[in-house]
Amino acid sequence: MYPCFLLMQGLTSLETLHVYSLPVPDMRxxxxxxxLSHLTSxxxxxxxxxxxxxxxxxxxxxxxxxxxxxSTSVELEQIIAKDNDNEKDQILSxxxxxxxxxxxxxxxxxxxxxxxxxxxxxxxxSSLKKLQKLEVGESSQILGVFGQYDHASPIDVEKEIVLxxxxxxxxxxxxxxxxxxxxxxxxLFPHLETLKVRQFPKLTTKFSxxxxxxxxxxxxxxxxxxxxxxxxxxxxxxxRMWTRNNGWWEEEKVEEEEEEEWEEEE
Length: 266
Known about the structure:
Elements: H1 3-8, E1 16-20, E2 41-45, E3 52-55, E4 67-71, E5 78-81, E6 107-111, E7 120-121, E8 133-137, E9 144-147, E10 160-162, E11 168-172, E12 179-181, E13 186-189, E14 194-198, E15 206-209, E16 215-218, E17 231-232, E18 239-243, E19 247-251, H2 256-259
Keywords: Plant defense
Pfam families: LRR_RPS2 (PF23247)
InterPro entries: At4g27190-like_LRR (IPR057135), LRR_dom_sf (IPR032675), Plant_NBS-LRR (IPR050905)
């Protein structure tokens, strides 16, 4: 057992945990067999050998987690992995997760995780009812925001998934992304206020507004008819912005202060 694991056994009442540049060169996970049931905020940065952040058993205790932020973890392959010491058997299927995972998650930020293929299995999406802000950027191998880790046939979930509290969505510099969600699932964001999409050469998902002004992420198979006032058809190398009050507009160059938002605390 690593010395830091022994230290954390006395810190089970932690509410905020920041992990920067893990000192153990071959450390593949942050902790094991420790219940941090009071944790509300987790920041993981520059942990270059980290393979995963959570295990499937661990997340059932993180009912109060609100704000996870993961950046510049270049070896990260999964946010959630199986509780299994055999690295060859760490792939997680949707059946390993319960729909009650992360019931209080309100903000998620992922950046610079170049081996990550997706954030969560699509069957977890319906549990993120309090998610208000989602930012994903500079992760070269992400195929979709929501995926299915075992790459089996699509699981039986609702064909339209609602993220009822999502207000800000930012997806930038994801050159491999193909879909917002694996399979023929549409996502509805009834309270979205701001959407930013940039540098998606392969994305097939279409973002469009409904008749009542809500934003929708529609899969390619939905065969949605787009027009310039209601929809964003990608691929694009420019920055498309949408706000509920002003609709779509295109920026050839993102302002420097927006580029620096991710680096404020570095």
